[in-house]
Amino acid sequence: MTTLTKTSKKTRKQGMLDNVMRQFDNAADIIGLNPNIRKILEVTNNEFVVHFPVRMDNGEVEIFTGYRVQHNNALGPYKGGLRYHPTVDIDAAKALAMWMTWKTSLAGLPYGGAKGGIQLDPSNYSLAELERITRRFTYALGDNIGPELDIPAPDVNTNPQTMAWILDTYMSTKSPSERSTNMHVVTGKPIGAGGSEGRDRATGYGVFLNIKFWAEHKKVDLKDKKFIVQGFGNVGYWAAHFLEKEGAVMTAVQDAYGSIANEDGMSVEELMEYATANKGSVLGFADAVPIDKNDFFALNCDICIPSALGNQITAKNAPKIKAYLIAEGANGPTDVEAEEILLKKGIDILPDILCNSGGVIGSYFEWLQNRNGEIWQLDEVMAKLEKKMGESFKRVLETSQRRKADMRTAAFIIAIERLEEAYVQRGIFP
Ligand code: NAD
Question: Which domain-ending residue is among 350, 385, 408?
Fold first, then answer.
């Protein structure tokens, strides 16, 4: 097995950016990436930092800082989510934008990579304030986003409602004759506002499919297998929903508020109902007990699904992990040191750029429908998603076997080789 042992030549700030660069360096070294193309892919194309004022409910004005980083668009318009979280900064946006470039390339989509967001804790603001913040952020980004230029989508603490506000603000700045040609400026919209059937569950369903494909390959029966989920939001919930339908049992959940466990299993739907009524928090759910958050990853289970933030599985907790499969719903949940430890222990990792790519594939379907004036049925969307995810999984598995590399390295190799080919064929302007 090839493991991620190489450290970057440059000193980089610890965190997600360091992580994604080391993953990139590792794969680029293995394939002997053209050094000129390497120089291009190592840096981001554009980085926007906007400071903008918003009037709060109490009449005072607050200044917010928003980010949008466009890493690469060699394969098509920039694509990636917007995150509202206190940890959002330029380095986080750069790292997440890079992962998007590899993800869209791996999935064979006509997109590049971008990411952004606002550094804030949304729980401190009313819905009306969040609407004004979102609209003013969209206005500040102006024509640096666009349906054929850069297409945002939901991420942590943003949702279909956020996308509807962005769409409405963006369209409102266009002349009347152009307005309805801009529906695809964002994806992940509510269905009534131009969204697609199935986009809500696309990421979680993709995580589930990857686990299913892996289980078929390993001849593992998912029935009665125990899984734990970090992050019970869009991705974590839908992944758990489909796994439970397959007969697997959810035994622990951790969210931003705390951790709960029940060795005998708890109902995914009942927990979702409880959390929805409890401001998004799983704490206090009657059918589970609270546990120390530091014990979460060490719990006895078969499958671990990190679906919250980056750098959650580190050298500190990796040695204690008992799961034999980690399915990365989140972006960048496992750092490079942790990955080395896990691979040595024989734990399989379904890497983020493969495992959570159902989201951007679902977004691509929404974008295509808006662009072509089409409306697809749910079963059609799910079938297309399953086909595309199946192809990606097969390609990554085959590359990992042929290259004797772990799944992440294989996924990066496929993604980078596609970009290299595009640059070699097109050349560099002028
Ligand atoms: P979300 O806002 O719907 O849910 C996030 C969940 O994580 C919540 O349950 C929250 O309480 C929990 N959380 C936040 N901070 C935490 C912490 N410190 N410890 C434990 N739990 C914490 O977000 P989401 O859309 O489900 O995104 C989750 C992850 O999946 C992110 O890494 C995101 O980039 C990635 N992702 C999302 C999509 C998508 O379509 N939404 C697609 C691909 C990847």
Answer: 350
CA of 23 to the centre of ligand 1 (A): 22
Kindly state if the Cβ of 329 falls inside 6 Å of ligand 1.
yes
Phi, psi of 416 (to 5 degrees): -70, -35
Cα torsion 124, 360, 160, 60: sign = positive
Share of the chain above pLDDT 90, in %: 97
Same domain, yes or no, for 241 and 329?
yes
* CB 331 less than 6 A from any atom of ligand 1: yes
Task: List, in order, residues 6 or more apart from 393 with CB less than 8 Å away.
Answer: 209, 210, 213, 214, 354
**Which residue has a Cα nearest atom 22 of ligand 1?**
256
The string of pLDDT tens digits covering residues 310-321 is 999 999 999 999
Ligand 1 centroid from CA 308, angstroms: 4
**What is the span of the domain harbouring residue 124?**
43-178
Check whether residue 287 and residue 319 sit in a common domain.
yes
Closest-CA residue to 355 (of 391, 327, 377) = 327
Q: Which of 324, 350, 376 is the last residue of a domain?
A: 350
Q: Indicate which atom in ligand 1 lies nearest the CA of residue 332.
A: 32
pLDDT tens-digit map of 371-392: 999 999 999 999 999 999 999 9
| Residue 259 beta carbon below 6 angstroms from any ligand 1 atom | no
Q: Over the stretch 6-43, which tens digit does the pLDDT of each residue have? A: 334 444 446 999 999 999 999 999 999 999 999 999 99
